[in-house]
Design brief:
rod-shaped, 1 helix, mainly alpha
Amino acid sequence: MDVVLTLLVGTVSQADALLMESRQVIGLIAAVLAAMLAAQLGWHGTDRLIAWRQRPDED
């Protein structure tokens, strides 16, 4: 009985540690994706602003 209880407690503690690590990894992945999205939107916004400002010069 003690062996089963020890295995159960060990399994639960390992699962808890794995979940804590996966939260950090998921947070890191979400931060990288958010930074990439912000960079992409900034790039397109800058392109549109430049294109909008150049239109009157070409007329």
